[in-house]
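Record now logged underneath.
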Amino acid sequence: MTLPKIGITMGDPTGIGPEIIVKALSMGEPFQACRPIVFGDRDILSRAIQIQNLSATLEMVDQIPEDGYLPGKIFLFPSSHLDVTSLCFGQPDRACGEAMVNSIKEAVEWVKSGRLDAITTCPINKQAMNAAGYSFPGHTELLAHLVQASSVAMMFLGSRWKIVLVTTHLPLKDVSKWITSDRILSILRLAEEGMKKYFGFAHPKIAVLGLNPHCGEDGLFGEEEKTEILPAIKEAKSVGIDVEGPFPSDSFFNLSGRYDFDVVVSMYHDQGLIPIKMFDFKEAVNFTLGLPFIRTSVDHGTAYDIAGKGMADPSNLIKAMLTAANLSKSIINY
């Protein structure tokens, strides 16, 4: 079988993205599953190779090579040309923000045109992205803007759970404003469609978590369960979605096995990601639902505390690449 072509975006030039890319592509495992091409900056990636004393080489390309993919041979489309001598690790500037976005935009154009089968993204700095003129809270929202997707959602894939978020990068004080029945229903539809299309579930069972302690305790600790979450669940059931809840999140993620669901819908970022990262920090992968192409990402950040020290572990990036490759081969038209 012809291996899928996966585009990898460099992420923040002053974070660990460049390091984990060149380290991952110096290993054999990614090349057993896909044909990778990097979108990024030659001098930044060259520095990452030198820092880690790797024997990898960069080969500039302006189109996707059909063959020649080998560990240590990194095909690179140069999407930026930064002055590496002016950059300090952990201190991205506007130019870095532009470079991050340019690598993403190029990869998106390539996957939209069919030249790639999927993309995998390395972590960005959201402040630098905003400083460059892209006012989005993260990757997901930027990607949705680039393809004019009407509704997208972050799904995290772990060994124990698949979790979809209703809200993503919001201050906690603002979360309840975004917990609306319409938004929850939209996420439920995305979750069901994603489970059918990419994971082969004919009738996925979906669990919905509450927002408030004890799911509001019948309104004593909050009204959102009664006014927004339950109506969304009722509407979803009326159109044939197999969904139950809301469940109190403080007890849902126990290991007793009393809950048997295929995917979990979580109300906010930390509610869903704490259990995922507790058990699967190196294995969990971020997968975006609602895009017209497959996009996976690492589940960690820029790791400025170790950037430039050659300590970064590429395991999660490799997992994200393998997941992108597998998903691109498992799409089901239903």
Summary: The chain is about 40% helix and 20% strand.
